[in-house]
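Backbone Fold Data
Goal — fold tokens
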Amino acid sequence: LGLSQLARASAMRDARRRVARWYKSALADLVAGGTLEIPADEDPAREDAWHLYVVRLNLGRWQFDRAQVIAALKEEGIGTAVHWMQLHLHPYYRETYGLGPGLFPVSEAEWPRLISLPIFPDMTEADVGEVAGAFTRLSQRGGRPGAR
């Protein structure tokens, strides 16, 4: 399975790159309005795999937290996720190395803002439009789940 996927890796990366560009365009109004931040433009010195498309909520512009945003997007049929946990708060590192809250304040400030949006090679521009549309509707209605 891995070898067959490796043969398609470049094509899948290129397809996800296309989806990332569609997201940039589709979310531009929310970015301009300060509602959320999207990944930085591609750096020509490196090649991004675009295996995740992570947006950052500007929580000062929202009247609710990330969990409520995720729940409201789910009501709109959009599945999202949070794909990482700060290592210093992971049980293994807490227990093994005595790490804990307060050691990495930037990580702790970013953590509540992050949401991974769907991104996969077969996404269409219309799929991206649905995600962006759900975010736009959510921002317009105050973002609370069920508040239509």
User: Anything to note?
Assistant: The longest helix spans residues 9-26. Helices lie at 2-7, 9-26, 28-32, 66-75, 91-97, 105-110, 125-140.
